[in-house]
Design brief:
Aspartate Aminotransferase, domain 1; alpha+beta; 4 helices
């Protein structure tokens, strides 16, 4: 992360680098979409900054079980397998980038997958 760069700015950079992604504010926070489908959403409502992403089946429990300080089951979408990643305590940005990319791949139309 560049000096003075905020975690939301870094996340925005990662998401908007993917093909045909748009940012849209929803529920008071940025969401990142491909088409009309959300693949990443920033959340700050619980006084902590995080991103919620779609995860492959089974990944949620593996990630949360391996490191519950960094990963959590988010409300509302957690029952659908989404994972929350804390961004406010020096996240591993390569890991965040990989997980965001995976979420995008689960949501994006197949024609776009060839471009990443």
């Amino acid at each position: 992360m560049k000096p003075q760069e905020q975690p939301t700015d870094r996340l925005r950079e990662l998401c908007l680098a993917l093909p045909e992604v748009v940012e849209q504010e929803t529920w008071g926070d940025p969401t990142f979409r491909v088409g009309d489908k959300i693949f990443a959403m920033v959340k700050s409502g619980d006084e902590r900054l995080s991103v919620w992403i779609k995860a492959p089946q089974g990944s949620q429990m593996v990630l949360v079980g391996a490191d519950p300080a960094r990963f959590f089951v988010p409300p509302y979408v957690g029952s659908k397998g989404w994972v929350g990643i804390r961004l406010d305590e020096d996240p591993d940005w390569q890991e965040v980038a990989d997980l965001v990319r995976r979420s995008y791949q689960l949501i994006a139309p197949k024609r776009l997958l060839k471009r990443i």
